[in-house]
Amino acid sequence: MALTVGLRPLTRALLRPWARVPGAALGRPAAGSGDGVRCFGSPRVLVEPDPAAGVAVMKMRNPPVNSLSLEFLTELLISLEKLENDKTFRGIIITSDCPGIFSAGLDLLEMYGRDPAHCAEYWKAVQELWLRVYLSNLVVIGAINGISPAGGCLLSLSCDYRVLANNPKYAIGLNETLLGIIAPFWFKDVLVNTIGHRAAERALQLGFLFPPSDALQVGIVDQVVPEDQVQSTARSVMAQWLAIPDHARQLTKNLVRKPTADRLLQQRDADIQNFVRFISRDSIQKSLHVYLEKLKQKKG
Ligand SMILES: CCCC/C=C\CC(=O)SCCNC(=O)CCNC(=O)[C@H](O)C(C)(C)COP(=O)(O)OP(=O)(O)OC[C@H]1O[C@@H](n2cnc3c(N)ncnc32)[C@H](O)[C@@H]1OP(=O)(O)O
User: Fold this and answer.
1) pLDDT, tens only, 43-80
2) pLDDT tens sequence across 105-131
3) Which of 112, 125, 142, 157 could share a disulfide with 162, CB 3.0–4.6 Å?
4) Mind telling me the catalytic residues?
């Protein structure tokens, strides 16, 4: 089956990119950027530009848990593309606007009870986000101010540097096996690249969600700081990274990351087909059902 799914036809039509942020954020001056600079973004992604520093803070706000739905992924992609294409910016800080949650990972409702065409379109968007963040020419720093399982962890791992808030609730890891699903090879590759083969082998099989102290020890994050210092630390780290000439840093990043990205780029369609086949299995749909029910019951 030749896959012809694309992100743009459905999702671009749904969105009005770069609409001014509604409500309180509309026209609000960006923090630390002087009077003239305004926040912009889309309903689920708030961008606070600091042109003087060449940095934009991208705040994810898809409440309640910043799950990576198709629409949210699309808005993230549009924001990233816009920032990449604007020479003003040399770095972005990705953080969350949802208290206590960085991102709950992929949106389970995009994978549960959906038809194959939808799953294929969704997976293509997931691939796209990873490739864009992982290979970005910009310096990308994760200011991780909440829990960050599975797809949320992948987003963090795709940054150049990760600062995690020191709160025992803010666990991070690829916990797919706990849901009865399997982290795709490119999730696994990024984890192996970050924490090494043996640690990744254990973490992936056991679905570890590392609390901050363990996360730092294993190297899944680069720094753990008090919660109220996450943003300022991300800013200082950004300044260090921006002190390096862009062309040298970018070429070096590409040198290091391209082989990993190429593994997916060489088989994107096959990866989509594998995902669709896997996620459509009755047994996997049952596992997702059980997990979603558990999430519901947790409340009651
Ligand atoms: C081949 C397949 C490859 C797939 C690769 C990657 C997979 C993933 O990324 S799968 C997603 C993995 N994520 C998780 O396991 C996290 C699940 N969520 C939680 O553990 C908790 O929600 C969380 C700790 C993030 C937050 O806890 P609370 O603050 O207590 O909120 P609730 O649990 O009450 O959740 C609120 C609301 O959101 C719904 N929810 C949570 N996570 C997701 C999600 N990932 N996708 C979709 N929806 C999610 C949750 O069910 C609640 O919904 P309502 O009951 O309708 O309010």
Assistant:
1) 999 999 999 999 999 999 999 999 999 999 999 999 99
2) 999 999 999 999 999 999 999 999 999
3) 142
4) 106, 151, 175-176
Rounded distance from Cα 288 to ligand 1 centre (Å):
11
d(C-alpha 44, C-alpha 13), whole Å: 16
Q: What's the pTM? A: 0.91
Q: How far is the CA of 273 from the centre of ligand 1 (A)?
A: 24
Got the DSSP string for 14-57? H--TTPPPPGGGTTPBPTTS-TT-B-EEETTEEEEEETTTTEEE
Instruction: Write down the ipTM of this complex.
Output: 0.99
Pocket of ligand 1 (CB under 6 A): 64-65, 67, 101, 104-109, 147, 149-151, 175-176, 179, 181-184, 275, 278-279, 295-296, 298-299
Dihedrals phi, psi of 276, to nearest 5 degrees: -60, -45
CB 240 within 8 A of CB 234: no
